[in-house]
Request: fold
Amino acid sequence: MEMIHVEEISTSALRSRQISSIHHLRQISFTPKRSKKSEVIYKFTQQNLHACKLSLTPQLVISLFLLMGIIFVPIGFVALHASRSVVEIVNRYDTECMPDEFKSNKVAYIQDISVSKNCTLAIKIPKFMKAPIHIYYQLDNYYQNHRRYVKSRNDKQLQYGLHYIQTSSCMPEEYSNGYPIVPCGLVAWSMFNDTYSFVRHGAPLFINRKNISWKSDRDHKFGEKIFPFNFQNGTLIGGKTLDPTIPLSEQEDLMVWMRASALPSFRKIYGRIEDDLDADEVVFVNIGNNYNTYTFGGKKKLVLSTSNMLLGGKNDFLGLSYITTGFSCIFLAVFFALLHVKNQRPDHDTSHFSWTRKNTIS
Amino acid sequence: MPNRERKRDKLRWSKIYTFSCIRPTAQLDTDDAPFSLQGPGFSRVVFCNQPGFHRKKPFKYTTNIISTTKYNVLTFFPKALFEQFRRVANIYFLFTAIFSLTPLSSLDPFSMVAPLAFVIGLSMLKEGLEDWNRFIQDLKVNKRKVNIHKEDGVFGKIAWQKISVGDIVRVEKDQFFPADLLLISSSYDDGICYVETMNLDGETNLKIKRSLETTLLFEDGESFKDFKATIRCEDPNPDLYNFVGNFEYAHEVIPLNTNQILLRDSKLRNTSYIYGVAIFTGHDSKVMQNSTASPSKRSKIEKKMDHVIIILFIILSLISLISSIGFAARIKYSMIKWWYMRLPDSRGYYDPSNVAYSSLLHLVTVLILYGYLIPISLYVSIEAVKVLQAMFINKDMHMYDEETNKPAHARTSNLNEELGQIETILSDKTGTLTCNQMDFLKCSIAGVSYGMRTSEVEAAAAKLMATEISSFTENSPKSHQVARAESCLGNNDTVQQAGIKGFSFKDDRIMEGNWVQECNADTILLFFHILALCHTAIPEPNEETGSFNYEAESPDEGAFLIAAREFGFEFCKRTQSSVFIQEKYSASRQPIQREFKVLNLLEFSSKRKRMSVIVRDEEGLIFLLCKGADSIIFERLSKNGRLYEEDTAKHINEYGEAGLRTLALTYRKLDEEEYYVWNAEFVKAKTTIGSDRENMLERAADLMERELILIGATAVEDKLQKGVPQCIDKLAQAGLKIWVLTGDKIETAINIGFACSLLRQGMKQICISTTNVDLVSRDGNRIAKENILMQMDNASQMIKLEKDPHAAFALIIDGKTLAYALEDDVKKQFLNLAVDCASVICCRVSPKQKALVTRLVKEGTGKTTLAVGDGANDVGMIQEADIGVGISGVEGMQAVMASDFSIAQFRFLERLLVVHGHWCYKRIAQMICYFFYKNIAFGLTLFYFEAYTSFSGQSVYNAWYMVLFNVILTSLPVISLGTFEQDVSSEVCLQFPALYQQGSKNLFFSWYKIFGWMGNGLYSSLVVFFLCVNMFDSQQFCVGGQTADIAVIGTTMFTCIIWAVNIQIALITSHYTWIQHAFVWGSIATWYLFLLGYGMVSPIISQDAYLILMEALGPAPIFWIATGLITVACNLPYLAHVSYQRALNPMDHHVIQEIKYCNKDVEDKLMWTNEMNKAIQKTMIGFSARVDAKIRQLRSKLHRKHSSSMVS
Reply:
């Protein structure tokens, strides 16, 4: 009997539902047709725009991790290989080029103009080096990125020369002997002035010192008609002097130097050797050891390096970190796969609802 | 009387009303002498009809222009600017901006000033727009037109703002009073007028104002030609209920009181027109004096955010300090050796001999530099997001009420997320849960109950019964759905009730004149006569229907008159002394009009709880007709008048249980002689002067209202608003506690409690009252308090001892008891008890008590409270609560004006909280967390770089990158997260109200989450910086052989950060519309486009970023490879963490997302509905005992019906 009543009630409820759904239908059919644009606006204001919902299901997560692993590990190996294929020779010379008698007083040696600063290094090429071979000087413990140093330059002056007089940023290398300095500022003033020349088989090896700077520097940043003026004329001589007959746009060493390095240990390009160097070949380098790094204990190194399409220079770090990340991804994929297997949770598993959990606990 | 054109209003109310005939007439009020108005506070002089005097000093008063704006053109800038800098973070940004103008800053001043200007400008713009809207609103009010006396008796229209003190104003029916006026005369002969003060106090009933006898003569425009008088009165003050002043006219001084004062913003009703003199204009008017700035509220999340910002400040100071110490060490020990620095510096920035000074300056530098830790754009983004969220709330069609054409309105946008964290709702009853519309539903006449329709309580019971039965038949998904569908449908008896408003009665026995055939026809006739005669209403002919509308003082009375009309006794006319009734079903079957002479009228007051009229019918017989509360009436019955007492009492009880309001109707026949003896005494009492008059009148009335003969009772339904029970059920499922605070009596409140299933089966009702305490005794207070404490102790003990974990308690307390319970030493105990109870109902509470209870809950529990109400009596509560919601229903706008959100119907609260609240909470919480993450990830890289520059304060990024980071490159995705994110759709929110708990438990803005995100930021910054630095190290990075400089490394790092934070937000987002896609991917694309474009402009502007993408980075594969690696590496732990959490401890919305994602809800409907029910079961313990009884009753009825149908 009881069941019959139930049916009675539920059918009446059904009926009322039908009625209401009819009402609903009617309402819909009566609403005026909206244009497509206003339909979108309506959906927008009702926060009802079509959306794809991302749900991090185990399958998705596992395949995502796996995918990343599969992509990253090969890239890592390729990068590592590329890095390993680069031949790089680093020679520290600031100590070797120091005559023994000055070992105790290096600063006096470097500041003494009368002493010859030339020294010769023999470099044995360990592996075949394909041209072009880049020549770098490397300075350590040199803070080119220091705020005082970075700021001490004037881009407008470099481009427009003496027409541009507002050079207060160049302090304390703004004026010398009452005349403005071009190029002004500490950066230009402290320019690196060691020189290298290479000898192979008794004959000088040609070093191409053109095109070592960025093209944009030559074309736009350093003025074509701006010549060095009143440079290194002060009481304190910093680094290299510039030939006042060559316009700034052709002073590539300056351009390279003026690009402030990010780290206190940096390399800057000096030139290129455009011949291949064979393995076990010995190359002699005549170094003009002029630059003072002795005061602050900085190191000077000469670097020869071939280059590589992918990475440029020799650096295993990139490849290694790619491999590490890739393997972490694969590891995570495996981990989640195991978790998924062990903790078999179907997609529609509802036992994790807080209400269900609470009930089972209590 | 010549020139009188008052055609219809020939009423002398003063004669009919007994208790309010207090007209101060000069000759009578000897003891009520004019006030001596001297001294401070009583300096105002008004020269009536001579506004010229008020044009210049010393009588120049405020004009009638009102302005609610915060600023004007001149003050806007300084004031709004000052407002902005009340935020601590903004002050910090201001300082950094100022210092950035000095050489101390390593950043471009532009990069510091521009964002600040942008942020502050935007906030000020918002402030300005809001103020502009207020200005426009004021303008509308100021430009309203009204008639004033110009000269020589001619009236003309002017704008409200032009009214000056002393002007004679003519206000027409249904217009608002433009200023506080002294009533001179009205369209009624005796100078009364009706005023609706809804805007002032929320009361809908009409109030009567009376002019002075002296000024009655001035009844048309002409007569004001030479009118001159002086008013001396109090200065402007906010007291609405008092007025002190004297009226000096024709060498007479007459005292004024509040009876003659018409307050601005109240409305003239039922009176064709009035004349009045403006006394207080503009901001002097009482209503303006009363307006208080609503307290500014801040959400919990925002308060917590302040703490987080303080933590960030500490971190910022810490790393700045570390940097400065590092700097000092460097400058002292190593930097002097760096010849290329050319130390010492002439300006002292790098002075090895004065390290302290240099490092102090440096501290300022790095404080500015690391400022990116504190998200400058956070405030402005949050503000923008909240405005958009508010827009969504305002536009939501599901919260739009078609009947009243009112959408929901977020009046303050800064509390949106608080909507998702509510734990307690404090609700008003009348007008909020109920419609404040009375429907005549049932009556009991001569011991017989009439009226077939069911009340909503009964209907609800029937519906719930259907649900319950279907839940017995588990596992049949169909019945489940049916039941659910039905409970979702809301009121399906609306079809049934589509009839006359205020009348839902249906019973063929007495309708359509059939009552003549009933055996007690005489008594029924009398019953109808009482309905039609015993009231104070005025009929208002309705042109459309040809019948009458009634302007009654209370909705009950209106329902009675409509009922009488439907029964065939149409009250059609009221004159000075008579009431006319059109009887449709007389003996002759012809409509006839009967006249009843009204001899006396004994008004209703809440103290008396009854009202009576004494009438003489056409045959000359005198009757006293009386209606009142049963408790009062029953003790006044005569011996032979108790014939129907037993039956009627039973019926009244039944009606009460069905949630109806009842009144008992009685009469008494009077002898001519008896009446005259009493009347003599009554008139004597009436003419008595002095304070005793009221008492004497009451005594006289009391003498008359005895020996009554009971004939029946009426039952009127206080209609619940649409969908209220369903809404309350849902809110309860969402884990919210609902307290009802009502001014109604305890019985009604309990009835309504059952009707909206606030009280359920298995709930033990704890009633705390003072009824059994003798309050008259000297220690009444103390004893009462002790008694209450004892009751509460007992109740607490009971709750403690209760073993059943599912037991629920309900606390019911009345206002008198509450007064004690709210005292300082008791309130804690009261609160503890109340918190243990599932629902709390407070009856008979005053507006102040409402506010006090709200404060108690808010401060005592420390949880978020929401107060919802519709009347002026709820304003206190609305302002006190964390969130005030106003129902923009029939009552005035006071509650709405004070509220933070307004909705048209209570049922919209469900969507407002469960959908919008839930969304807004999650959006804001995630948004803020993300903000911290992204700024830490970015800001810390600057710090690491410092270590490599010997803490010099050099930034690794181009200034422009830093400007754009917060403003353009990462702002839109986070705004889209805060605006559009939906963890689950609105339907699911409504289907699973339990999801709301995530907000009240604050799962998304807990310290765990905040620190988690900060940790994520720290990790990302480390990854970005160290991977980048090591990858670029010192070797050449491109085929050309060039090595990386600051620009290359900085740009690469920045690119990585842009990718990492944007991918991060893509991972947070779970709801992708095209907007999210556009913003996230657009932001990344914008960065490259910017880099390209910025690199093209002159190197003077772009500096080291000149052609950087085109020339240096673009062709270098390492740039792209590094970006990919770092982006993935940054987001790997987050992804792993989230996946792990999801796999092992998924949250409710995760499971739902998965179900939805796999379409399981469509494929497996049974599981889906089962889950829905399971989520509900936790809170749906059962239904009320009374409802249960009804269920049994209905069931047996069904049973009977069914068996009878079987037989047939």
